[in-house]
Amino acid sequence: MNTPSGxxxxxSSSPLPSQQPMPSQPLPNQPAGGExxxxxxxxxxxxxxxxxxxxPASGSxxxxxxxxAVEQRGIEPVPRSEQTGNPWQLFWVWFAANISVxxxxxxxxxxxxxxxxxxxxxxxxLGACGSxxxxxxxxxxxxxxxxxxLTLSRAVFGVRGNLGPTLMALLSRLGWETVNTSTAxxxxxxxxxxxxxxxxxxxxxxxxxxxxxxxxxxxxxxISGLGINAINEVQKWSTWIFGALNLVILVYLLTRxxxxxxxxxxxxxxxxxxxGIGVIxxxxxxGWSTSxxxxxxxxxxxxxxxxxxxxxAAGAGIPLxxxxxxxxxxxxxxxxxxxxxxxxxxxxxxxxxxxAAIYLFISFVGLLLSNHLSVYSAGLNxxxxxxxxxxxxAVLIEIAITTVLALVFLLAAENFYDPFIAFxxxxxxxxxAWTAVFLVDMIKRRSYKRxxxxxxxxxxxxxxxxxxxxxxxxAWIIGTVVAFLFIEIQWSGSGGEATGVAQxxxxxxxxxxxxxxWIGEAGLGWLVAxxxxxxxxxxCGGLRDYDAVDTAPATTxxx
Length: 559
Fold this sequence. Notes:
The protein is mainly alpha-helical.
């Protein structure tokens, strides 16, 4: 018998404990535990057509209208009757996730690379909008297949071959969530020092650091645990509320700008601009590529693909362009900010107490608005890895791990933070290679065999050979390995124990033979990974292995 993977939960949403569902026996064609049965009858298909931007599909209300509804579905595909979302929901999701002042350091980094303000703005437009357009394209796959990104990826890599990319995505999510949690806790500690006069470091006030971590993870757990409805609503209203607070800080900063210095700054070369575009793309949308379908699986397959792409590109692009451009203006105007190893702290120190408190508060919230998206995706990745647990349980596991790691970073580890950042940054290479292979596969694939996405047995059409689609898996590996030739892995540690004088020590772990070429020094190794993986996949016949169902329009293909 074909056995589905452990998705844990099988319905889209349920009330909170005030209204508990009655227990029931499994249906004849439904395995025990509430998991969906394979080879069940496909639901009726909607009539062919397309929806205008913002127009909900007919049927049940669009997801996101009920804040308190707990999403019960794991990775099993969303029935077409429940795919009622519209692109405006994705617009708010990505807008809120990128609205924070945390975009300012990206703009400062562009000026440090040699770009002037106008070039930095161009890099922001092309890098942010372009990379989130990729997220939007992968959102189209989520609409077509009704499943999370890495679950759909089983059709591309095979049910076993997909474990590698899924593990890389899970580690990356776990890593950046730990960084988000640690940074938010530090913002909380500093906020308390401004308001209550307490010491301003985590080790001086360990209790406050613990409270900051617990507050952050509790809010993350509530939102990501409730699921897509809560995410849609929270992101929408947060855009307006915290967007206004961000504008307060930006207006104040604009009054302190040396505009003569900003406008007189000479521009960089074309090569520097290209490198700047790469820095922005890698620091924004590329990192979210594996979450595109996660946020779009409730979108109707009748929604036009262009609208989904635009919702992600514009939703994330608008706030990022504003924040990155403002960071470039500040970096051009202030030598202190430009030379600082931590521009965020330097900017905060230049603000009066009230403005600095607002600045820290919106920094905390900005991290939260992206962190609960990450935890939501990570929970789905746990299930895709084959761990047979509920989605809410997966969220709790993710939260528990990030809590422990964040507390270790804040209170115990002396020299582990920088190496940890270096490690999770390297994970961008295999994730970029995955993105490229997935996008090439979408050229011909128009639909997914939804029930087969959960079938992990040799009977699955996505079993290929030994559970691996070797041409896709080989392209992913080759793209990643070639990209390593262009990177250098290093971090700054502390030394001087023998002399008693603390000093910075640059630790170099790995230097690729092509790391000091222009591509390597421009930090474009992630782009090499994607290009090489795509080319290898095409040369290996990546547009084969499709049948009539794969290539049929999503509105007419069988479920």
